[in-house]
Amino acid sequence: MLFPGAVLPLHIFEERYRLLVREAREFGVLLIREGSEVGTGRGDDVHEVGTLAALQEVEALPDGRYFVLARGVRRIRLLELIHERPYLMGRVVPLADPPARAHPRLLGLLERYLAAHGLEVAPQLSSEAGKRAVWLAGSVLHTDPAKRQRLLEEGDAAFAEQLLREELDLLERYLAVTRPRQPPPN
Fold this sequence. Notes:
By secondary structure, the chain is an alpha+beta fold. It has 2 domains: 7-94, Roll (Archaeosine Trna-guanine Transglycosylase, Chain: A, domain 4), CATH 2.30.130.40; 104-178. Helices cover 36% and strands 24% of the residues. The chain contains 6 helices and 5 strands, in the order E-H-E-E-E-E-H-H-H-H-H. It has helices spanning 15-23, 104-116, 127-131, 133-140, 145-154, 157-178; strands at 7-12, 26-29, 49-60, 66-82, 89-94. Strands 1, 2, 3, 4 and 5 form a 5-stranded antiparallel sheet that branches. A hairpin with a 6-residue loop joins strand 4 and strand 5. The chain is globular, with a radius of gyration of 19 Å. The relative contact order is 0.15.
């Protein structure tokens, strides 16, 4: 999954995706509902809401493979899959983002979540990150893909807060069990 503003590093080795890199500067990233994308007819059962990605860096390797870095641009809704190329294509429409405003509670939870994972952040996340806090939360959460998909579809800050609280609770309970106990003071 990819959220707007997030980066997606990819190693491109399949011929169909090598062709995609040569032919397009943007592509859609949509979560597959079930199964795998590999094989005839696979990858057709995707969620309708995904993210348009733009290739930002492309490193061509001597054997025809690529290392690429793509960035999520905006959400899209898939209207129709098109089977004209070796890779799937589709007709899509852009989706409006939720209002770009800072969500102080969400930003605080994000800071706690990142700190719990050992990532130091500035005293407060930047105002630009605050405007995209819902997408930032979706990008860093290690939760069920269905929940992340719902967040991408709805863009709901309250749901992002709920997911962060759930993850922080799990992480804090895990850390409480795994931290070595300190001997009592003498």
